[in-house]
Amino acid sequence: MSTHINAPDGAIADAVLLPGDPLRAKFIAENFFKDAVCYNEVRGMYGFTGTYNGKRVSVQGTGMGQPSLSIYVNELFRFYNVQKAVRVGTCGAIQKDIALREVLLAEAACSDSGLNTMRFNGLHFAPAADFGLLKQADIQAEKLGLKHKVGLCVSSDMFYDDKENWRLWADYGALGVEMEAAELYTLAAKFHRQALAILTVSDHIVLGGETTAEERQKSFTDMITLALETVTA
After folding, report:
1. 22-38 as b/e, with b when 16 or more CB fall inside 10 Å?
2. Nearest 5°: CA angle at 158, between 27 and 181?
3. Which of 36, 69, 115, 231 could lock 180 by a disulfide, CB 3.0 to 4.6 Å apart?
């Protein structure tokens, strides 16, 4: 029984977009979906189902951080048989050649989280995106003319990183830091589902500069369009 998603059987589509911010879920449903219906309001974590390009698709807020996302993705996979899960979120760039508002496709996710340390008894799992979704997103980004990069992201449990651990990740080629993708990829591997994180650079950790809260909620439409084109292709 699903505890945090109060939706009847069949209310959620096979493909689901996953913004951390529930208000971004509401924005996506209101501005991109046709005939959107709200299926969840538990804890203010909105979920909607509608159609895009004539195909059924859902959007579900997940909250911030891997433990929060883990709750919602577990329930989507376990109880609602979701097959494709695409995170649409923000990240901080840690490479100088990445621009503010650029779109990143996370082929794999490094992490400082203890979740997989506990899950794998100290062994090291490599959370990676589904290649089919990643390839399709790259194809669709080219069609849309979107400036984008494909590479590693870092899923950190620390938003305020006083030790600046991002510098070590950057030395090993990671593009940006966010907070959820590693758990999404791990759960997709466990349940044999497809997952991808599409990220918009909301701030630049190296060079400085950031977007506003309103921009993060409402204006990252390139990322949203790309995600929808990818799951409905």
Report:
1. bebbbbbbeebbeebee
2. 50
3. 69
Look at residue 217 and tell me whether its pLDDT is greater than 70: no
Contact 138, 105 (CB under 8 A): yes
Q: How many helices (H) and strands (E) does the chain have?
A: 8, 9
User: Tens of pLDDT along 155-181?
Assistant: 999 999 888 999 999 999 999 999 999
Query: Which helix (H) or strand (E) covers residue 48, if one does?
Result: strand 47-52
| DSSP symbol at 118 | H
- Cα–Cα distances in Å, from 102 out to 205, 214, 221? 14, 17, 12
Angle at 21 between CA 214 and CA 73, to 5 degrees: 160
Active site residue 21: no
Q: Per-residue pLDDT tens for 54-94?
A: 999 999 999 999 999 999 999 999 999 999 999 999 999 99
Marked catalytic residue, from 21, 35, 203, 222 = 203
pTM over 0.90? The answer is yes
Residue with tokens 């979704």: 133
